[in-house]
Structure prediction request, 359 residues.
Amino acid sequence: MYKDAYNKTISSVNNDILQFATFLDMYSKEFVLKKEYLKIMDIATNDLKNNICSYCYMKESCHRNNKTILYKYLSEIIIFSKRSDYSSETFQHIKKCPYIKEMMKEGVNLNKKYDISGINIKSNALVGILNGISNILRMYVVDNSIKLEIDYKTIYDIKKDIIKSGINLCYYSPVKNIINDYEFEIGVRGENVANISKRIETIFDNYISGGVTVNQKRINRDKIYFTVTPKNCYTIDYGYCNYCADDNSVSGDNCLIKDINSTISCAVICDGMGKGYEANDISYNVLKMIEQVLSSNITPGASAEILNTFYYIERHSERYSTLDMAEINKINGEVTFYKIGASGTYIYSSKNGINIIEN
Prediction:
């Protein structure tokens, strides 16, 4: 069992590192863009919309159904329409567009007009990028080093007590052994489900503070498998809405709700610079980045610092956004707020009235 727990821990760490490496690859591929390139793409995209979309009889329904993704698709038409391996079928994500062929032709013209294919889109801020990545890796190492494990003697003693209690144990595996983010998988043979769940819960409660939740995972012939995870004392209901500027049908705001682990959830609101499609595209990309970082099993606080570092590296691109992030602990009910350039947060409570958190 010791060897198995060790191998699972090493495997988990390696997986986290690979996830983070994927995030770095995504950043270098999609976000290291020159200010001049972004400015020209904005002009070309607006030209395409004005030259074709403004005369289309379906523009209102199209903008309504595709408003959050239209900017991205128009950009793709301009960038890729000159390639021989792209046809009108490639761009069918702009559903039911009656002028897709005309848009592709105009995309070719705009590509030539602004020399989109010939622009060197990559930034030369190599020193800044290397320094920023170095800082990010340090934050990643520090963040992982503060995670405390359940000691292996406790894991062994739990198994020993389960066997002593008379439970016919056939499988026992600590999938994750981090305090407040653990998961045990247990298999038993020939037992009543309701009775065995309570007995397993009682044994774990003798060793792990805060309580546990025992859930049935699957049944395989005469074997029943359970998962044991931390007990959450709170459930969360989310609500989100946004408001468009008077002269736009698209808001620059986007939101993200994500479970970091079995006990921590994260809610994020991002507001892109400017308004309309461009602002929406900026905030969408920021949330995509932070979701990728959070998937690397990094705490929300470290994720916000990492994101801030990347945008400091890319400060010359002038694609800014504000960020509001809440880290919610479902065990003790505590909420930690992280704010980057955002306005005040109002907290409404039936007991304490209204509190304001300033940036």
Summary: The two ends are 48 Å apart (CA to CA). The CA atoms of residues 205 and 211 lie 6 Å apart. The first helix runs from residue 2 to 30. The chain has a mean pLDDT of 78.
